[in-house]
């Protein structure tokens, strides 16, 4: 086994720990680990990430459900539009993007570079949400929900998640908090179930005959991540979630900036 793969599997524990602690951030870690540490091609890495994060989030979601921290009504409410959007994006939009999107005599923009740059932009947007303190107290009130806004947000989240191979938890949790008026602890558990279903459906939509998936890598990475999610869920009872969210936000911001600089100035474009 290559040393880069061993390092990648060790880092996979942190993917699960992050999901277990804050209900999001798994894809923000898994895609860069797969691409930059384990050498997986970016488009393939987004597919791997959907499987890893979807399976890991499912284990975390079941654990939260046992603690009665999942609102299944809102899983359906957000899940239907996000699943629809992520499946269509992975099945039809991503495969039909040309390998070379734009080219001149001195510059070529490749599909893989575009996906990584968009992913980095999503990371930076997510980091700002994480760094910003949550000042508004959320009161669980299902009587005044804006269903059109929730459906529209679900479609947007599904498109973004499908395009960059992310679970979308960093977008789902704010939507659950402010659009669906869900308390934070309930939002984390609910987010895990939504992330799980939409990621696994997205992965199914991504499977094509010409793809050569490394199932050995996928399974080992996923198992390490699942172990991590149980560790994260345990630690969540002992660590201040707000401080953790802020610290992780700064890390994600740094990673997003690094990816943009690497792909635009030092990538093979």
UniProtKB/TrEMBL annotation:
Full protein name: Probable membrane transporter protein
Organism: Flavobacterium cheonanense
Membrane topology, from the record: Multi-pass membrane protein
Xref: Pfam families: TauE (PF01925)
Protein's UniProt keywords contain Mitochondrion: no
Superkingdom of origin: Bacteria
Keywords: Cell membrane, Membrane, Transmembrane, Transmembrane helix
Keyword ATP-binding: no
Predominant localisation class: membrane
PANTHER family per the UniProt record, alphabetical: MEMBRANE TRANSPORTER PROTEIN MJ0441-RELATED (PTHR43701), MEMBRANE TRANSPORTER PROTEIN YJNA-RELATED (PTHR43701:SF2)
Protein's cellular compartments: Cell membrane; Membrane
The family this protein is said to belong to: Belongs to the 4-toluene sulfonate uptake permease (TSUP) (TC 2.A.102) family.
Chain ranges passing through the membrane: 7-37, 43-63, 75-93, 113-131, 154-180, 186-205, 217-235, 247-266
């Amino acid at each position: 086994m290559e040393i880069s793969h061993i390092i990648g599997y060790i880092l996979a524990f942190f993917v699960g720990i992050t999901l277990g602690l804050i209900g999001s951030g798994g894809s923000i870690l898994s895609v860069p680990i797969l691409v930059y540490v384990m050498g997986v091609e970016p488009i393939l890495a987004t597919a791997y990430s959907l499987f890893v994060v979807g399976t890991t989030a499912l284990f975390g979601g079941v654990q939260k459900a046992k603690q009665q921290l999942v609102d299944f009504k809102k899983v359906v409410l957000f899940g239907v539009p996000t699943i629809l959007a992520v499946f269509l994006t992975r099945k039809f939009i991503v495969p039909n993007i040309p390998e070379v999107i734009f080219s001149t005599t001195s510059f070529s923009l490749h599909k893989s570079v575009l996906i990584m740059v968009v992913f980095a932009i999503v990371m930076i947007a997510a980091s700002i949400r994480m760094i910003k303190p949550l000042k508004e107290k959320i009161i669980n009130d299902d009587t005044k929900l804006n269903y059109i806004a929730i459906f529209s947000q679900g479609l947007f989240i599904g498109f973004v998640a499908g395009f960059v191979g992310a679970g979308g938890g960093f977008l789902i949790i704010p939507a659950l908090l402010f659009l669906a008026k869900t308390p934070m602890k309930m939002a984390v558990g609910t987010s895990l179930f939504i992330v799980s279903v939409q990621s696994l459906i997205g992965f199914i939509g991504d499977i094509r005959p010409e793809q050569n998936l490394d199932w050995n890598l996928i399974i080992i990475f996923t198992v390490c991540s699942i172990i991590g999610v149980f560790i994260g869920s345990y630690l969540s009872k002992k660590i201040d979630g707000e401080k953790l969210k802020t610290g992780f936000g700064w890390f994600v911001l740094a990673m997003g900036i690094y990816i943009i600089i690497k792909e635009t100035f030092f990538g093979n474009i």
